[in-house]
Amino acid sequence: MKNVILLTLFLSISSITVLPQSNSKKTISSNNFSKDFKLSTTNKTQFIQNIIGKWEGKGTLMRNKAVFSMHWENTLNNPFLKLNFKNQFKDQNGILRELQSEAYYQFSTKTGYWFDSRGMILPLKLKFEDNSLTVFWGDIKTERGKTTYTLNLDQCDVEDFVMRNNQYFSFGKAIYKRTK
After folding, report:
1. What is the Cβ-side half-sphere exposure of residue 22, based on CA atoms within 13 angstroms?
2. SS in 3 state form for the chain?
3. Does 24 have pLDDT greater than 90?
4. For all residues of the chain together, what is the average pLDDT?
5. Assign residue 5 a region: left if phi > 0, alpha if psi is -120 to 50, beta otherwise?
6. Which residues are within 8 A (CB) of 173 and not within 5 positions of it... i.e. 6 or more apart?
7. Predicted pLDDT of residue 43
8. Which of 40, 88, 139, 154 fits a 20 to 30 Å CA distance from 3?
9. CA–CA separation, 35 vs 108, rounded Å?
10. In whole angstroms, what is the distance from residue 30 CA to residue 38 CA?
11. Is residue 120 classed exposed, middle or buried when 0-12, 13-18 and 19+ CB atoms within 10 A define those classes?
């Protein structure tokens, strides 16, 4: 029932039309972020501004070579950062597998939600450290894990972990290059 309510809420939000306020470039105000992040406001804002854009990656997923794409953008007049994500790999039988998802991150509350082509809706909790963002996903009712995003100029290293028996195990790793 909770997933149905969340999906209904998501579909309602995604159907709202937002009119542009001006043609000027939007910037992120430091007032939008929680004061208890470990990073300084400047570093948090800089991290978010640097992750915005289109990225293409190569790496591994469940021990298979994989390709990845992610597109980060401000949405709904900036209270959310939206991620469009996709990965593709061939499994051991040579079958092409693909996952598509959208995630919405709200930095003022350090939370968000992930929606994917498997039909999963995962709650998110965010944590910043230096030049990285760790996203803890899932809860006791869903699968659980974490994803780390580490920025270094126009490269973003991403590693995915799933939680099994209260321990994290890596299942995916990619190096992304900015394309736009």
Report:
1. 4
2. CHHHHHHHHHHHHHCCCCCCCCCCCCCCCHHHCCCCCCCCHHHHHHHHHHHCEEEEEEEEECCEEEEEEEEEEEECCCCEEEEEEEEEEECCCCCEEEEEEEEEEECCCCEEEEEECCCCEEEEEEEEECCEEEEEECCCCCCCEEEEEEEECCEEEEEEEEEECCEEEEEEEEEEEECC
3. no
4. 79
5. alpha
6. 59, 60, 157, 158, 159, 160
7. 61
8. 88
9. 9
10. 14
11. middle
Rounded Cα distance, 87 and 69, in Å? 7
Buried b (16+ CB within 10 A) or exposed e, 135-167: bbbbeeeeebbbbbbebeeeebbbbbbbeeeee
| pLDDT confidence of residue 108 | 83
8 Å CB contact between 142 and 122:
yes
pLDDT, tens digit (0-9, with 9 covering 90-100), for 35-52: 333 334 556 677 788 899
What's at 96, amino acid-wise?
A: L
pTM of structure: 0.74
Of 1-10, 48-57, 121-130, 136-145, the least confident:
1-10
